[in-house]
Amino acid sequence: NEAITITMRTLTQHGTHAAAIIIAPMRVHDILANQATENRKLPCKISYGGESFFLAPRISLILEAFRPRVCRSVISLPSQNDDWSCGYRNVGSLLRSILGMTVKQVKPLSLQQLLEQAWRLGFDPYSAEEFSHKLAGKEGKAAHIGAAEMLVLLWYHQLDANLIEVHDTKGAGEAVFEVARTLLELWQANKSSGTCWPIVLQHDGHSRTIVGVTTAPRCDPECCVLVRDPRDKPGEIQCIPYKKLDGRQYQIVFVQGDGSQLLTEEELERKKGDLPIAAKFQDGQW
Predict the structure, then answer these.
(1) In angstroms, how far is CA 249 from the centroid of its own chain?
(2) Cα–Cα dist 258/60, whole Å
(3) Burial, 73: exposed, middle or buried (Cβ in 10 Å; 0-12, 13-18, 19+)?
(4) What SS3 string covers the chain?
(5) Cβ contact 191:12 at 8 Å
(6) Sign of torsion, CA 121 204 167 177?
(7) In the structure, what pLDDT confidence band is assigned to residue 234 with cuts at 50, 70 and 90?
(8) Total-model pTM
(9) Backbone phi and psi for residue 201, each to the nearest 5 degrees, phi listed first
């Protein structure tokens, strides 16, 4: 059970409430277990069992040979029937799953109104200025929101949300994979850090939701990120080899723990102004 010599990295932290994230080493017993999965081929897409509910046990069973790490079962995963509402759909699914909000409460218009309220309280003045402090009722390109606005919506509900940025396009896929794997494994290990919820993955022009990863390196393909794209058919999850995520910059939004530890008023005050970044991958390092 001695650790194989793999560099252990700690993501650079900024701010007082950043999450502690450690890239964990592979252990000997993991390598031995992986040998049993050699030559197995992972499907490109899998079904999570329905339009409304993500069933983590079902996915874990389907992908058992690929050593999956998945988030807990959730109320809903995002779906969109347009070309502009992905950000609302992804963060709305998180709010529904964690807080039990209704479909009506997480419609784009409702979330736009909440964002305007958050801006008036002093959250993210840069985005407020960019939208001229007016977002409610907008559609199409003028209504696009990204990681910053999703973060603000989560903070507005006192959820301990964090932002990680991947600036390098080379190696970006591995960085995204390692963040998702580590966050999910930390929660499974001690239930006090990491996350048990889906993770939002934002890149220029679109956002998706990560529901898990596979961690068996002898499979074909090797390690994958399990992604729900709101533009896909209901009930589908993509299994994306992490190397295919290279070539883009990313922002990653996640809620710390199980969402039960709400931010205090003092902590919320510290979130106002410039957005704090929990960690950044740049120039080949964290």
Answers:
(1) 14
(2) 19
(3) middle
(4) CCECCCCCCECCCCCCCCCCCECCCCEHHHHHHHHCCCCCECCCEEECCCCCCECHHHHHHHCHHHCEEECCCECCCCCCCCCCCHHHHHHHHHHHHHHCCCCHHHCHHHHHHHHHHHHHCCCCHHHHHHCCCCCCCCCHHHHCCCHHHHHHHHHHCCCCEEEEEECCCCCHHHHHHHHHHHHHHHHHHHCCCCECCCEEEEECCEEEEEEEEECCCCCECCCEEEEECCCCCCCEEEEEEHHHHCCCCEEEEEECECCCCCCCHHHHHHHCCCCCCCEEEECCEC
(5) no
(6) positive
(7) confident
(8) 0.85
(9) -115, 115
| Cβ contacts of 69 within 8 Å, gap of 6 or more | 180, 181, 184, 185, 188, 212, 213, 214, 215
Are 127 and 152 within 8 A, CB to CB? yes
Strand partners, 227: 210, 238
Which residue in 260, 257, 244 sits closest to 208, CA to CA? 244
- Contact present, 115 and 149 (Cβ < 8 Å): yes
- The residue-averaged pLDDT of 113-117 equals 98
